[in-house]
Amino acid sequence: MPTRIEKIKLQKAGLGRRRISFHKDSNAIDVKAKLEEVYPRLVYGGGFEILRSGLSPKDLHLLTPPSNAGYSVQFLRDNSGLGQAIAYIRPVQSDLDSSSLELDVQKAEPPTTRVFQNS
Fold first, then answer.
1. What is the tens place of the pLDDT at every residue in 70-90?
2. Which of 13, 25, 67, 93 is most buried, most CB within 10 Å of its CB?
């Protein structure tokens, strides 16, 4: 469970809390594509796991999908007990870049050049 400071850092990096809706018939490929659309940096994490909070807000439990189906909406809705609870997405192979998107925007902007003319 991220601390309050970690949550702020994740939010600034575009990895924070979001409300995501899926079509009721979305399969695992659709769910993965939607999550990668909402969290583009997730593409570089080497896969992901979905966790949900337990009885205590600090307890997180891994939602283990059937190996042949993956994280489909049917699994998340009917078998995982997730319902409308908060889900946490954890990259499997590596930590995601959590640098602020504000810094990325500043890096992407070309420096301004001023032209002075003598009159």
1. 899 999 888 888 877 788 888
2. 13
